Structure formats: structure tokens, C-alpha cells
Amino acid sequence: LRALLSALLTVLALQPGRAVPAGVLVDEVWDGEPPADAPGALQALVGRLRRALGRDAVESAADGYRLAAGPDAVDLHCFERLAGEGARALEEGDAVKAATVLDDALALWRGPALADLPDRAVAAARWEARRLDARRTRIAAALAQDQAGEVLAELAGLCADHPLDEPLQALRIRALRDAGRTAQALAAYDEVRTLLADRLGTDPGPALRALALQPGLQPGRAVPAGVLVDEVWDGEPPADAPGALQALVGRLRRALGRDAVESAADGYRLAAGPDAVDLHCFERLAGEGARALEEGDAVKAAT
User: DSSP secondary structure string, 264-278?
Assistant: First the structure.
């Protein structure tokens, strides 16, 4: 009985303030196997839910029932609002606000999404994807505050659970780089590249390639070739270091555009100005594409 009550409350809560037809409630609560007297059983279950929540909590509608509550009374809807607010704050450059709001959003999670509705696996997967996206954004906010060392453990666990998630892997490589672990960042990139090739037959996307190939470059500032070699190979350069560096720069130009990396007197620099490389933008767009694909919108994902 407790499971039935939880299922009824969950179905109503997914559409707070909106009437849910009795037939839909019966199908969802009893998972396609309704009792003999389904209308009577539903009415009895609604009565029990009213006694638990208060008589006015569940209102009768023309052909069903509705939960008398606003969206913010439901954790999932409140989470979605806060997650969106946090993402916008980060895009606007307010990493501190983004971190605070996203912490509030993620604190609303107390277990798997829609666990009381086993037939809602697709919907549950979408909510879990949104949760993962919020965690990605929260980590990006930490990196924007120079807190790379504080998120490395979390990133390692997330990447182990989602090894083919390129935006997540890009965050991990960026965190390793920002924490001064250049050799580990390059090793992580090689692991991801091999994994993508073996499992999907694809190469890393531009966000990953950019992170792997530009650990020492900064927009508008020339960096000597020797410094780049030291940073990229962590003090252990290959035999032909100048040639290897030139090859890496060539790959970076192919990934980001030929004008993205400029040659300087004794090194290279990233192009500055409105067309400069924006890795945060890469990560955000890659995340949006991944979400669109998870939700079945292949056209939007490709765009």
C-alpha cells in the first residue's frame, strides 16, 4: 500500500496544479495491471493520500485529480529552476553565485529519480541526465574559482561512471591541467581518445582536443616554445621537441581553426579578441548537445 501511495503522489507531483485523468493515474500507479474495481481502488487510494497530506492537498477534477501545489513545492521542478539559474549565472561570469545556487539544487536529490514509478525509465533517465549536467556546471563553477584540486576526486568518480561523456572528460582534463598535473592531463586525454576510438570509432571533439593541446597558451600573449614544451611534456620532452610541438600546434589549428593559434617570434599565442578560443563555450555547447541527444533530438544535438 505504501508503494501505491508513493506512486500516486509521484504522478500527481510531476504535474503540480494540473489535473491528471483517472485513467492515467490507474495505469501509472498499478503499472498497467489495474485491480478489478480500478475506479473504486483509485478513489480509496486518493482518500488515504488526503488523510496523509491534508484533505485540501489533492483536489478532484472533472475526470481525475490534481495536486494543489505550485512547482516549487516539488523537488524535481525546484531543482530544474535552480539548475537553470545556476547555469545562467556561470554564463554571465558569476561563478560564486552559480556554485551557491547549484549546491542548493543538487541538495534536493535524495535518491534515484522517479524510483516509485518503474515504468517511467525514460523520464527518469532524462532527470538523471539533468542532474549530471548540473554537477558538470557546478564543477565548472569551481574551476572558474581556481578550485581544481577540490573537484578532482569527484571528477574521477564521475568519469569512471560515464567514460564516454566528453564534456565531463573535458572538465577532468582541465582540472588536472589547472592543478598543475600536466602529464596526468595528457595521459587522461590519451585514455579518452583510445576509449572513444575503441567503443565508438570516433575521435575526441574540439573541446577535448583544445584542452589537451593548449595547456600553456593564453589568448593574446606569446609563450616561448621552450615553455610550451616543458608544460606539455611535464619536463620530459620527446627527442624532437620542436617538431613534436609544431605537430601539436598543427592539430590544434585543425581543431579550432587555422587563425586560432598565431606564430610569435619564439613561440605561439592564442588569438585574442571576439574570435578568440572560448573553452567555457565549448564545454557548455557540448553539454547542450549531449542533453539533446539523450532526449532524442538528434537535429538539435548535431547543430
Answer: -SSEEEEPPSTTS--
Rounded distance between C-alpha atoms, residue 286 and residue 292, angstroms: 10
- Residue from 29, 30, 65 nearest 50 by CA: 65
- Cβ–Cβ under 8 Å, residues 21 and 63: yes
283: nearest Cα among 184, 190, 208, 188: 208
List, edge to edge, every strand of the sheet that includes 58-61.
Answer: 20-21, 64-67, 58-61
Residues in the chain: 303
Query: Which positions ≥6 away from 152 have C-beta within 8 Å?
Result: 172, 175, 176, 179
Strands (E), 89-183: none
| pLDDT tens readout for residues 156-210 | 999 999 999 998 998 998 898 888 887 788 788 888 888 998 998 887 776 676 6
Sequence-separated (6 or more) residues with CB below 8 Å from residue 77: 16, 71
CA 18 from chain center: how many Å? 29
Q: Is the distance from CB of 103 to CB of 142 less than 8 angstroms?
A: no
- Orientation angle between helical segments 148-161 and 166-178, nearest 10 degrees: 150
Do 28 and 117 touch, CB atoms closer than 8 A? yes
Is the pTM higher than 0.90? The answer reads no
Label residue 161 exposed, middle or buried (CB < 10 Å: 0-12, 13-18, 19+).
exposed
